[in-house]
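The records we work with from here on pair a chain with its fold. The integers have meaning only within a learned vocabulary of local backbone shapes. A complete example follows; check for yourself that the lines match position by position.

:::
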Amino acid sequence: MAGDAVDQRLSQRTNERLRDVLSLLGGSLLQYSRHCSPWVPHHAEPILAALMELVERQNESIHELARSLETNVVDFAARSSDDFTDMHYVSLDFLLERIIADLSRRVARLKADVVDLEIGLPPLARQILDREIIILDELRSLKRHLNEPH
């Protein structure tokens, strides 16, 4: 009986932390960038398309995590930072630099959360962290490609 109570508290704590992870990812500048209209030189249009693919890949992780939570009460859509509201009509280079900085901070926080959740950690949390690291690497690659001479 006492073991069930401990398991329930661990499960509740894990769900709370996973909801925090959900909010962390759902409020990223990468997610917000789907609403931005960055200025893109003609040669960089494929980079913008690749950026939008990364937005969708992160969005898939967000929705997969949301579906895995025990609760159906998930409110992460409006959690974007007010700092992002001036990210409209900026250059793609400027936007990418800020997305990379924002996601770097979020990945560091996610790593800390995943380490904290190691006991009873759903494999999905580790998979999402791994995906976010790959997305961050791909964003850095896009930024390097954008800055190459044409």
